C-alpha cells in the first residue's frame, strides 16, 4: 500500500510539473513545447530585396540545418517573414504585426537602415529581442537599446575602419569624398571624429551629390592635394562616376569604400571602364565570398532550398545573424523566456562564426556586436578576393 501510494504521489507530481511547464510555455509568446517562432522583417519586394529577402533566405537554411538535428532544446525553429519594402512606415507596421498578430518570440531582421531605425521605438516598447542582420544605422544600437543587438557592422565602425585601413596600407595623404545627405552624414561625422582622434586632418574634403553625373572638379581638387588614398562615403552611382572620372584624369589613389558598395563585381560593371577599379577596396561584413570553397555547404543549401538562386553575399548576412540567434537560444536554456535570451545575447563574448571576419562580442553597455569588417577587392576581370580584416575598438 505504501509503495502504491508513493507511486500515485510521484505520478501526480510529474503531472503537475508537466502542467506547470506547459503553462509557462503558454505565457511566453512564440514558444511551445516543440517550436520557437522567430520573426523577420525587411524588403521582400523592390530593389531593397538584396538586404531583405536574400538574408532571410540565409536564415532559412540555418534554421533548416538546426531543425534537421532536432532543433534547440527539442524545439524546431519557425521563421515568419514580413515585407517592409525598405519603407519606415511599412517597417513599423511589419514589426507590429510580427509582435501582436504573429506573436513571435524574437526577431532577426532589419535590412534597409532607415526602415529599421524607424521601427526601433516599437521594438523597445515591446521589449522583444532583435538581432539585426544587415542595417548599419548607428541610431539602431546607440544609445544602447535593451533588447536590440547588431550582428551587422554599424556606419561609425565602418568609417573608423576605412581610415585605419588607409593608414595600414601606408597612405600618408588621406582625403574624403562624401555625400552630405542624412545617410552620408551618418558616416561622414564619425569619420571626421576618427581623424581627430588620430590627430590628423584630411588633405582634402570633397562633397559629391547622390545624383552626380560628373566628378571632374572634385577629382582635380583631390589630385592637386596629392591624395594617395580617398575614403568614399558614396552610393554606388556617384562612386562609379568618381572612379570613372579619376581614371580619365590619371588620378590613381587607393579608393576605399564601405558596405554601401558591397559588391566589387557589380561595381566594376557599373563603372564600365576597364581597369578603373584596380585600386578600389571596400568593406564586407562577412569573411568569405560566394565563390570561396569555405562557402560550399551554404551554396548547396541555398541552391537546394531556393532553386534558381545562387549564393550571394547577402545570403551570408542572414546566415551569420541566424547563427548568433541560435547560439543565444542554446545558452538561454530549455526554460526559455525573452529575458533569458537577452541575458544570453549580452553574454556573447569572442563567439566565432565561420562567415564573420572576427568574433561576436556583446555586452550590457554595447550592442554593436560585430566590430571586425573584412576588406574585399576585385582585380579587373578577376574574382573577388578577401584581403584581410580591421578590428575597431
Automatic annotation (TrEMBL):
Leader sequence residues: 1-26
GO biological process, one term: amino acid transport
Keywords, comma-separated and alphabetical: Amino-acid transport, Signal, Transport
InterPro entries: Leu-bd, Leu_Ile_Val-bd, Peripla_BP_I
Residues covered by the Leucine-binding protein domain: 35-377
Coiled coil start-end: none
Domain of life: Bacteria
Protein family (similarity comment): Belongs to the leucine-binding protein family.
Matching PANTHER family: BLR6548 PROTEIN (PTHR47235:SF1)
Name of the featured protein: Amino acid/amide ABC transporter substrate-binding protein (HAAT family)
Lineage: Bacteria, Pseudomonadati, Pseudomonadota, Alphaproteobacteria, Rhodospirillales
Amino acid at each position: 500500500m505504501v509503495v502504491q501510494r508513493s507511486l500515485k504521489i510521484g505520478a501526480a507530481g510529474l503531472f503537475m510539473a508537466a502542467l506547470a511547464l506547459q503553462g509557462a510555455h503558454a505565457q511566453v509568446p512564440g514558444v511551445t513545447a516543440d517550436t520557437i517562432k522567430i520573426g523577420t522583417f525587411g524588403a521582400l519586394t523592390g530593389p531593397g530585396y538584396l538586404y531583405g529577402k536574400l538574408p532571410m533566405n540565409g536564415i532559412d537554411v540555418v534554421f533548416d540545418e538546426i531543425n534537421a538535428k532536432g532543433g534547440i532544446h527539442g524545439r524546431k525553429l519557425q521563421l515568419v517573414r514580413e515585407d517592409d519594402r525598405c519603407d519606415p512606415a511599412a517597417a513599423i507596421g511589419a514589426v507590429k504585426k510580427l509582435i501582436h498578430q504573429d506573436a513571435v518570440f524574437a526577431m532577426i531582421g532589419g535590412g534597409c537602415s532607415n526602415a529599421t531605425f524607424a521601427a526601433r521605438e516599437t521594438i523597445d516598447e515591446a521589449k522583444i529581442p532583435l538581432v539585426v542582420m544587415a542595417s548599419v544605422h548607428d541610431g539602431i544600437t546607440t544609445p544602447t537599446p535593451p533588447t536590440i543587438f547588431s550582428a551587422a557592422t554599424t556606419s561609425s565602425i565602418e568609417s573608423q575602419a576605412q581610415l585605419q585601413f588607409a593608414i595600414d596600407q601606408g597612405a600618408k595623404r588621406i582625403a574624403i569624398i562624401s555625400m552630405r545627405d542624412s545617410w552620408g552624414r551618418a558616416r561622414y561625422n564619425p569619420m571626421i571624429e576618427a581623424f581627430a582622434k588620430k590627430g590628423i586632418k584630411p588633405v582634402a574634403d570633397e562633397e559629391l551629390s547622390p545624383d552626380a553625373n560628373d566628378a571632374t572638379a572634385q577629382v582635380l581638387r583631390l589630385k592637386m592635394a596629392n591624395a594617395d588614398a580617398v575614403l568614399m562615403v558614396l552610393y554606388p552611382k556617384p562612386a562609379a562616376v568618381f572612379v570613372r572620372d579619376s581614371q580619365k584624369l590619371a588620378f590613381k589613389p587607393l579608393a576605399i569604400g564601405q558596405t554601401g558598395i558591397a559588391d566589387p563585381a557589380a561595381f566594376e560593371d557599373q563603372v564600365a571602364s576597364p581597369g578603373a577599379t584596380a585600386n578600389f577596396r571596400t568593406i564586407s561584413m562577412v569573411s568569405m565570398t560566394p565563390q570561396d570553397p569555405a562557402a560550399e555547404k551554404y551554396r548547396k543549401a541555398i541552391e537546394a532550398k531556393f532553386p534558381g538562386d545562387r549564393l550571394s553575399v547577402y545570403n551570408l548576412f542572414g546566415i551569420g545573424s541566424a547563427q548568433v540567434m541560435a547560439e543565444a537560444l542554446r545558452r538561454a536554456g530549455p526554460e526559455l523566456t525573452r529575458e533569458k535570451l537577452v541575458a544570453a545575447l549580452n553574454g556573447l563574448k569572442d563567439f566565432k562564426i565561420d562567415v564573420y571576419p572576427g568574433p561576436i562580442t556583446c555586452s550590457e553597455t554595447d550592442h554593436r556586436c560585430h566590430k571586425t569588417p573584412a576588406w574585399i577587392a576585385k582585380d579587373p576581370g578577376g574574382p573577388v578576393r578577401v584581403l584581410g580584416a580591421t578590428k575597431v575598438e
